[in-house]
């Protein structure tokens, strides 16, 4: 067999498999465990003086895992950067979802607002995508990372001012990127539309986030790194590589450029947003419920499974394209291998929630987060199946893919971020949300809105795909049959956007109307 | 409300941690199953890639070895439908190759004729013909032309001179000829071949500027909602992709289609809008205009259809699925039979495949006796692609054939 790039890539599959086999062997032979000594370390590092706050039958276990971040002065340092990041993220969320609804409406009202170029579908949709990815999801994810990382490492955030500088630069870059896209100046590749000149500013801003996190990690006061830490640290190291490689102008061209494009676009979801979301859920689910997660060994499997298999996944977007069969097949195989880490995360997170369903009733943040975690499982399973050639040939180039993208980026990551914002902000500001009912309204608006959105596009997408594959039906039929589904999508999208306005209102309420009464009792809200 | 819960409220200072449960066995099983599946999938792709590489190597071996029968195959596929397998031609219609003075002039002339085609009267072996030889310039490559020229001269030229032609020679001929168009009948051939008997004179070509001014205005400028024909069908009616080639189609056929668009027996959003603004005399003028146009083929097999299967359907049909040969009705080499059967050769493959699909889907139901609907129904999607690709690979309707069709139409009226 000639030595080809395909062979080399397949070798990466073999290496990943070998690594996975070794990992499973090591776990089953207890090569990797947190031994009693580690646990003692955590215990000693914790604030021993607070053990007396415990008063339950779980006392023994709980006493060992006990640490008061407020006492240690950790939250006070992270509070300002986190509030700034979350606040600006919310602005982008509202703007981004308004553009999203407008783009959605244009699909069934094609003549609406088409007088000027910035208001046309091509630019509206692109604005929506870039604002929610780089504005809302990245910033809210970073806010959560800035909040949780110091807590699990038991040290205050290093260089918090640098984070503020980064936040300002990042927001300027996103705003400039949005203006560039609206004026028609883009790099012309999906997910990479922001011109590379502005990307440089994003990269500088990103460095301002990464340096403090790395410094915080190096100064950590714990021996064992909790699973959220792995995901966060991996994400902040993976994303810069992805972002810089994909954005360097002139480095790739032609088919290669398309390959790199989808490698990037899919990895933004899998190696940036996913670890942020999964890491956040891993911290906040047990934190809010007050019970540990099921298994350290399973967390290892989940994390390394993602790390080993995800990076090749994106090329399944090019099934049928002029890309070597090897590359696509490898990507299909890697996509399906993603079942493994997803099952692992599902076991760890859902078991803990399922055993403590009472907490869902009490805590709205937990409701957001565990719904999001559940959607991670769904989106990943769906994604693995969608990557198969037989399924992909129907669903690709249809609205089905759009529904799937929103299942991952919205129902999973965004909902986890809503929950995390609702959990973090009262603690960061020392205030309580003035209108608790609006939190629930937010939850139901986005969940119902998303349900309508997802099911209409999924069903419509399959019908559209089948219609396009049937040569005896004219193309226009595949467009016409989508109309009711597209209208339903607009309804769903509008409900979600109302939810976001309620979210923004809650944040405004917290800033201007909230009493500064003690918040430490509200683990729930 | 939270305080009333019977569950202990978590303490703010609780720190999340992981318990030490092992990996559940089913997860390991899933891991093993996925590994096996993934390896098998990659191995399988490797196998099929190897196989296709081998196939390709074998194919190129066949070409390289240049099997003695290659010329016979090419002749059978490209020439025999008109010139007949024995090269005797058809009396009054197709000149013979056997005994022909032109073939006797050697492979160089045969190659030139294959590349340019003939358009005009000529005399062969004492008989007069109205020459309609198509140009194979777009349909055959250098090696195939060389092979055919050698085959024809070796078989029928009564000569002892060299009869072999190489593809390099054909390539230089092709460069020399450029876009000079068809030979102007026997008269022009006689200028190159001194040994030819007397040839009839070439009649003055009037159709180059043919078509009345009104038709030309419609074709190039359009009018209100009748946008110009050329804007989609090309300035020479050559068409593209799913827009059909109109050049050389029977005029009556074009008129019938325009009327069908108006009646709604043939559906197409653009054309249905356009025909609303066309009067009957204008339709006739447009039909007459396009039937006279000649333009080299711009069609290519682009649908990855199986050309062998396409050739089988076009030449023999497939009685196991009840499909007659295309050429039974659409004429030898798919040149069309005026006024009802349009030429298919050199038609764009995406258009042909789409029409076959439209007969099935009911967007087109303007065929007499439901002939085409029945045939299209019997064809699979692959068959439709195969036959469309094959027809696209053929040389275009020969020059002059269409004007005959027009005359017949006028006689009818």
Any descriptors?
heterodimer, A: 525 residues, mainly alpha, Cytochrome C Oxidase, Chain A, 74% helix, globular, B: mainly alpha, Cytochrome Bc1 Complex, Chain D, domain 2, two-stranded antiparallel ribbon, 50% helix, extended, disordered C terminus
Beta content of chain A comes to under 5%
Instruction: Using the CA coordinates, give the radius of gyration of chain A.
Output: 23 Å
Structural class category of chain A: mainly alpha
Q: Biggest interface, which chains?
A: A-B, 79 and 48 residues
CATH fold naming of the domain at 70-192 in chain B: Cytochrome Bc1 Complex, Chain D, domain 2
Label the structural class of chain B.
mainly alpha
Report what the structure shows.
The complex is a heterodimer of chains A (525) and B (413). Chain A contains 19 helices and no strands. Chain A has 525 residues and is mainly alpha-helical. Among the domains of chain A are: 17-48 and 58-66, no CATH class; 356-525, Cytochrome C Oxidase, Chain A. Chain A starts with a helix and ends in a 13-residue tail after the last helix. Chain B has 413 residues and is mainly α. In chain B, 50% of the residues lie in helices and 3% in strands. Chain B has a two-stranded antiparallel ribbon with strand order 1-2. Chain B is extended, with a radius of gyration of 30 Å. The termini of chain B are far apart. The interface between A and B is large, with 79 and 48 residues.
Topology readout:
The complex is a heterodimer of chains A (525) and B (413).
Chain A: H1 5-28, H2 36-45, H3 59-64, H4 74-108, H5 121-153, H6 160-182, H7 196-218, H8 227-247, H9 254-289, H10 296-309, H11 325-337, H12 339-354, H13 358-362, H14 364-386, H15 389-395, H16 399-429, H17 436-469, H18 475-480, H19 483-512
Helix pairs in contact in A: 1-10, 1-11, 4-5, 4-6, 4-16, 4-19, 5-6, 5-7, 5-9, 5-16, 6-7, 7-8, 8-9, 8-10, 9-12, 9-14, 9-16, 10-12, 11-14, 12-14, 14-16, 16-17, 16-19, 17-19
Chain B: H1 25-65, H2 70-78, H3 80-83, H4 101-104, H5 107-116, E1 118-124, E2 127-133, H6 142-156, H7 167-177, H8 185-192, H9 213-220, H10 230-233, H11 251-263, H12 269-275, H13 280-291, H14 307-315, H15 326-330, H16 349-361, H17 371-378, H18 381-392, H19 401-412
Antiparallel strand pairs in B: 1-2
Helix pairs in contact in B: 2-6, 5-6, 5-7, 6-7, 9-13, 11-13, 14-18, 16-17, 16-18
